[in-house]
């Protein structure tokens, strides 16, 4: 496993792709999950894209890229046929540069609750759309890895992937976004691990509000996630999995006490919900006893003022866990 960043994390620095690679190398990160392919070359120019890949390779950095949404209900004015052509073009352009594990999403979260089309239909139609991309994906041995983006649960993604085929679809596991659906991060990692090829590596704390709980993003090691359990689960299936830290501020609320919210999460068991509520309660106690800074006060500090401190801490914390995992493997192999 290698520790890098998702470039959304450093968007406020306004770096071009080559400056981003220099930032990574200077700060001892091992790679990047870039945003949309067109952020690297607006016209998908093969020479421009290959230049980014070649430079990253020469610096020993991993790179991955994103493609647009696979959800036909989120296309705006674009027709489905035009979107399919655009997706095909981007899959081909990425493959020409050696990018085969592609990041994508089905939405931003609100669609599950507010869209006129039921979320179950979004999932069915998205699966059908991915199937229609099957020929170009298989031709280039590429795969669309759908993020747990606050929209889709790991239960839903596993079913979708098994329906369309794990050779063309997988998961980009955002390790803290699973809390958006009251999924326990360890159990969610277990469900997702066989199909996880990319990550947004993120931590969080959660604490009670009147309607349920609120989530605040934190760098790895400064939140509630049990990394000593999560990383070995993921490594069992993907020992070379990139750990791309996606760090940002923002507070997100989840109305888990509301009947409608619960109805929209039919896979959630009472046992798993109880585990998450226990996480919330433990975080609440840590805030009340001063072990964690007050979330509202912490949130008020501009992200840029804390960005390098957060990223450095997360990088070093993850590497410490990885070193421990490697030591455990050596002990097990030698019987000591």
Short précis:
By secondary structure, the protein is an alpha/beta fold. The protein is built from 13 helices and eleven strands. Helix 1 links the parallel strand 1 and strand 2.
* Oligomeric form: single chain
Biggest sheet: strands, sense, closure?
A: 4 strands, parallel
Question: Level of helix content?
Answer: 40-55%
What is the CATH architecture annotation?
Alpha-Beta Barrel
Distance N terminus to C terminus? 24 Å
| CA-based gyration radius | 20 Å
Strand order of the largest sheet: 3-2-1-10
User: Globular, elongated, flat, extended or rod-shaped: what is the shape?
Assistant: globular
Coarse structural class: alpha/beta
Mean pLDDT: 96
Total domain units: 1
Question: What is the fourth-level CATH superfamily?
Answer: Divalent-metal-dependent TIM barrel enzymes
Primary descriptors:
alpha/beta, four-stranded parallel β-sheet, TIM Barrel, 336 residues
Q: In words, what does this structure look like?
A:
46% of the residues lie in helices and 17% in strands. With 336 residues, it is α/β, with parallel strands linked by helices. It has one domain: TIM Barrel (Alpha-Beta Barrel). Strand 6 (169-174), helix 8 and strand 7 form a beta-alpha-beta unit. Helix 5 packs parallel to helix 7 (154-164) and helix 7 (154-164) runs parallel beside helix 8. The longest helix has 32 residues, at 303-334. The radius of gyration is 20 Å and the shape is globular. The protein starts with a strand and ends with a helix. The mean pLDDT is 96.
Question: What topology emerges from the helices and strands here?
Answer:
Blueprint: E1 2-6, H1 17-26, E2 31-36, H2 46-58, E3 62-66, H3 80-96, E4 101-104, H4 111-114, H5 119-132, H6 134-139, E5 143-147, H7 154-164, E6 169-174, H8 185-192, E7 196-200, E8 203-209, E9 212-218, H9 227-237, E10 242-245, E11 251-254, H10 259-263, H11 270-288, H12 295-300, H13 303-334
Parallel strand pairs: 1-2, 1-10, 2-3, 4-5, 5-6, 6-7
Antiparallel strand pairs: 8-9, 9-11
Helix pairs in contact: 5-7, 7-8, 8-9, 9-13
